């Protein structure tokens, strides 16, 4: 049995995909009804709704009657510590962490000194509609990498099930290279667009913001090089091309990157933009995105002022809606704030 912790858009989509391939899937909902119940789950795509599959949902870990062999964690980074605490109930299970940013694997290694650990990077864009259903916006796929050895059989099982459920999947040997490659993709048009309230395509069409994007990308690539890592190909997002894009003249790569960003998002706004638009003030993921670049750069003795400042400004806008309103639709104000660091 595969247990999915985090039944949001991503967790529900992955659970539906695995169940579509015949795996027994249970979804753990933080705010679900008490007890265990059977539920029909479907995901809509460009061609219309997919076939509904039956999954078991539970409102708490105590309600589960069986121990899972695999626990797939699909929560945002600020909620990961809580999910890891929940997963402690099954010390023999292999954990699969499908999170954005840098830090999930380190948290899991510290919290679980033994047991199988797998890192996953999903490039399929999905969203939950106002009616509560799940919609797939882009093709994408998932890449799996071992964080600890002796998980190759679990990776084979998961990859086969994802493919059987209609999601492209493959394994890669280096979890760190995969995580940082996905981070490069997550950075594109994310923090800057969130601050000034512009979609990624508009960000990449603005000359000043485009230069800012290239600077944050160059900093992240320098950190990867300092760690001995090279970008890898992800489904629908080949991070191997980004070093070239960072070196070529801006007017040449600007229209290309604009199209890449638009295609990869499937029309969905990036994570930080969605978070600030929600206006909850809850912790965002920026500390594990731009903040992670700045932290890793500091450890290597490298400069990363753009990523550090973007992380600070996202948090400032998250805490103070008036601060974000001041930046909204004003790229020059963001550029001035970055230049002043």
How would you explain this protein's 3D organization?
A hairpin with a 2-residue loop joins strand 14 and strand 15. The chain is globular, with a radius of gyration of 20 Å. The chain folds into two domains: 172 residues, NAD(P)-binding Rossmann-like Domain (Rossmann fold, 3-Layer(aba) Sandwich), CATH 3.40.50.720; 160 residues, N-(1-d-carboxylethyl)-l-norvaline Dehydrogenase, domain 2 (Orthogonal Bundle), CATH 1.10.1040.10. The chain has 15 helices and 15 strands. The strands form three sheets. Strands 3-6-2-1-7-8-9-12-13 form a nine-stranded mixed beta sheet, with helices on both faces. A four-stranded mixed beta sheet has the order 5-4-11-10, with helices on one face. The chain has a two-stranded antiparallel ribbon with strand order 14-15. It has 341 residues and is an alpha/beta fold. The longest helix has 20 residues.
């Amino acid at each position: 049995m595969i247990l999915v912790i985090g039944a949001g858009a991503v967790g529900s989509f992955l659970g539906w995909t695995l169940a579509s391939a015949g795996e027994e899937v249970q979804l753990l909902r933080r705010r679900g009804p008490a007890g265990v119940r059977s539920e029909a789950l479907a995901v809509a795509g460009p061609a219309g709704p997919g076939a509904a599959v039956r999954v078991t949902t539970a409102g708490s870990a105590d309600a589960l009657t069986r121990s899972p062999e695999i626990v797939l964690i699909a929560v945002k980074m600020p909620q990961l510590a809580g999910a890891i605490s929940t997963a402690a109930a099954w010390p023999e299970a292999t954990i699969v962490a499908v999170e954005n940013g840098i830090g999930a694997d380190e948290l899991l290694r510290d919290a679980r000194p033994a047991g199988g650990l797998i890192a996953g990077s999903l490039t399929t864009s999905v969203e939950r509609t106002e009616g509560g259903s799940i919609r797939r916006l882009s093709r994408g796929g998932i890449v799996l990498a071992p964080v600890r050895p002796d998980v190759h059989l679990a990776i084979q099982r998961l990859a086969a099930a994802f493919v059987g459920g209609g999601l492209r999947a493959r394994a890669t040997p280096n979890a760190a290279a995969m995580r940082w490659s996905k981070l490069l993709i997550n950075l594109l048009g994310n923090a800057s667009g969130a601050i000034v309230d512009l979609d990624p395509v508009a960000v990449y069409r603005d000359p000043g913001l485009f230069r800012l994007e290239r600077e944050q990308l160059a900093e992240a690539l320098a950190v990867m090089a300092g760690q001995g890592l090279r970008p890898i190909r992800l489904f629908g997002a080949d991070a191997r091309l980004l070093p070239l894009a960072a070196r070529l003249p801006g007017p040449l790569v600007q229209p290309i990157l604009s199209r890449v960003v638009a295609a990869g998002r499937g029309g969905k706004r990036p994570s930080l933009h969605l978070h600030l638009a929600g206006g909850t003030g809850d912790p965002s993921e920026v500390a594990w995105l731009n903040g992670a670049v700045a932290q890793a750069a500091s450890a290597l003795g490298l400069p990363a002022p753009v990523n550090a400042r973007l992380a600070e400004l996202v948090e400032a806008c998250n805490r103070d809606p008036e601060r974000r309103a001041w930046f909204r639709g004003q790229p020059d104000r963001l550029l001035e704030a970055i230049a002043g660091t």
